[in-house]
Amino acid sequence: INVVKAHCLLDSGSKEILISPEFTRATGMKTFALEQPIALQLACIGSHSTINYGTNTTIKFAPIPSTLYFDMADVEYYNAILGTPFLRKLGMILE
Which of 1, 28, 30, 57 has the most C-beta neighbours closer than 10 Å? Predict the structure, then answer.
């Protein structure tokens, strides 16, 4: 992501493409505030967050480079979570 190797989770159960604020800062990505914050609902009862920032950046997955929009959210253990929209864009099928 942004020409830096990243620890990513491919998540076919997620409708989001998320990146951690720490990774965006460490790699010098330009971010922007969203006009309308987005509620992020997680699978745990009472677990929710709000997405206030986003970024557009390049990602190279295998030999395929693409430009993607990422929502910024606190992501534990990973630099990014690549959900269903990413998998569909590249025509990937997880088995």
Answer: 1
pTM, entire model: 0.85
**Could you tell me which of 85, 28, 67, 74 has the C-alpha nearest to residue 51?**
74
| Cα–Cα distance, 81 to 74 (Å, whole number) | 11
How far, rounded to the nearest angstrom, does the alpha carbon of residue 90 sit from its chain's CA centroid? Answer: 15
Three-state DSSP class for 64? Answer: strand
Per-residue pLDDT, 49? 79
Pairing of strands 80-82, 17-19: antiparallel
d(CA 6, CA 46): 29
Find out whether 2 and 75 touch, Cβ atoms under 8 Å.
Answer: no
First to last CA, the chain: 24
